[in-house]
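hey can u check if this looks right to u? its 204 residues, i copy pasted from the old doc so theres a chance i mangled smth
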Amino acid sequence: MPPSRPATKIQARNQATIMEAALEVFSANGFRGATVDQIAEAAGLSKPNLLYYFPSKEAMHNALLAQLLDTWLDPLRALDPAGEPLAELLGYVNRKLEMSRDFPRESRLFANEIVQGAPRIHAALTGDLKTLVDDKAGVIAGWARAGRIAPVHPHHLIFSIWSLTQHYADFDVQVRAVLGDEDPFDGAAEFLETLYRRLLTPSP
């Protein structure tokens, strides 16, 4: 276990190196396929040295997931109830797409955990995540009732945004195989903005 006293610069650097290596290995192999030996090799550390900081594969995975879930929810937290509804929702779509572009490994790590039944973050999904989603769904429903956006099921709207943006990270190989040399993110932002603008703009 890492010492309880403040980490030295070397210890902080090693912890960051281990987290980066763990992210690479877990996102590529999933929790079950990853090993401590693989992470130690990717980190350039001996296995005993790595285990000094994190006593198990589970400890590293849990640390990554806790950090990731908080980051992953930030774009939804930024949805401003006092803002202009269409701009707020299109901004959320764009922020989620940017996360898929900039943090593809983190997205795949989260997807792998969910596909396996979320054994390590189920409490967070039914707790903090559900609370936040329900709160923002209430905001969206209020906008719809006021006629500021078209009628829409708020939870399914959020689910669709997750699906359509995170797809570019979670299925990156398939997307790039189909598009060839085209950068998938070049056209994705424009397409998604058009899609959601048409869906959410109220009828005259």
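The longest helix spans residues 9-33.
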